[in-house]
Amino acid sequence: MMEKVPAAEPGLAVRVRAQDPDRFLLTLLAPAARREALLLLAAFNHELVRALELPSSHGEVGPIGALIRLQWWREVVEGERRRHEVAGPLAEALARGTLPREPLLEMIAAREAEAEGFEDEQSWREAQLGGAGALQVALGAALGETRQAERLRLAGAAYAAGAMLRHRSRILASGRRPFAPADVDGTLARSAGLGWLADAGRVPGRAGLIGVLARRDLGRPADTGGRRGAGDVLALIAAGLTRVVAR
């Protein structure tokens, strides 16, 4: 059952399933009428991440390549219409008011900060809250769950910290440098993620399910990578069913 592609937008679903299996899985636990917006947000987030996966020439040209790509997405979010499999539908959704614009601009600003390099721990923390945190706020809005926006922001940042640990080697090999300057082994990412998770608490609603995966990732050693095990999937489904029953 969990492998079924949402019917709302099959091409987009296939794309997100390959690029972001965690958020694809979370999309399957959402009402069918909401899935297209969730998939679009996940695909947009992946495009921003791709902008930071810089070529080997980065040492010579600096962050300019990533910043140019991110500016392209900023213009899309601000209303520029472009022919692109993600940018086109995204612009339409923003024009209809289906998706909120401000969290998407926050996400771009956070990736710009990463491209330029974090100055200190505080700038790193702000980027996590403005990046994955703002994405979770946008996902909550797409689900009609807006009352817990700041708690969703914390849960999203906690998930990002766990994902950094889970995929540490692969992320660094891609050219990205998403860790704080002094965080040579991921210790800060783990402690910050656990702190955000504690502050968020158990966030009600479907968007809050990201905290289930964050908690599991932050409790594991770094660099586990790979496909999620059955335990992760079952924990997520169980939490999702509990919230459906509680509504």
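Second entry:
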Amino acid sequence: MAASSRRLGPALAALAALAALGAPLAAQSRTAGRILRVAAGDTLAVPRVAVVLHHVGRAAQGPVDTVVADGAGRFDFRFRADSSATYLLSARYDGIEYFSSPIASDPARPDTAVVVIVADTSSGAPVAARERTLLISRPDAARSRAVVDWFVLVNAGERTRIAPDSLRPSWAAPLPPDAQNVELADLRLSQFSPEALVFRGDSALVFAPLSPGQKELVLQYHVPGTLRRFVVPGAAGTDSVFVLLEESGARVVVPVMTLGDSQRLDGRLFRRWAGRMGAATAIELEFPGAPLAPGTTLLLLVGAAGLGFAGLAGLALRRRRSAAPLPDPAFLADAIARLDLAQQDTVEQTPEAHTAYLAERERLKEALRRALAAHPGRS
């Protein structure tokens, strides 16, 4: 019996070893491809470059394995994939890290044609904002509008644009002077890290390298809800512009744009404008009159009441000039003070309204002069 056990032991161990080897192999994923560089309109293999496989999961992320590409720029990975994770490849060339799109990790369908494009660098490679989209909310309870400012940056050349030095960025765009608390819109979706951006004065500065192709930069900020006119300086090279406005009375003034179908975003309805920058140097928007704060409304009502009483007094004076005494000077002085207070608290005013204010103030002043002349002992 003991001898029989000794004879079976090695066989069982061998079977166990084969099973252990077979299980991972059956579940292994494979990805392979090449490292290429674009030059003179052609692609050239980049040999002997280290290629890193990255795991990006909910709980953890980091490098999984590294191989060195052969003389023809080819690489090959075999790995056991987590079905809930995403996998990427990266290669470092000329001091810049380049990443692939997410690769397939299904063992039954290996991804063996991955191409990672690297490039030479230049601090003068042209970069333009091919598209710009502005999404602007209606004023919230704090009388502030939220703005999402979305750029599609395009490097149409063969070289990666890099910052010339630590003071000059690889790309920059002017921001509206009214913009407050500018930041990246969503770190989970951004193609830039917060460390790669600097907000200096009224400009957004990008210090990250911009490789050939396109990248999206999404900023968010707030502007005062009391604004009636909002001017957004144009970014160099911007072609197409899209503006989504939540307020029904808001509109695009410059450049000339077409109002299209409304879009519902997160249950909120936005009117969509589309057009091109053309010769325009800025995007100019016009908002409807902002709602007044409770205190402002009260002051204006008080002023309106004063104007009403003064108007009635004037009307009565004109109808019964010979029979009725002139209004009390203190009453008229108080009406002028209320009128001035209401004028000072007005955020925006049309030229017609301002003209009406001046005319009413002059009328009240003339009535006050007459009242003082009729009551020489009053001051």
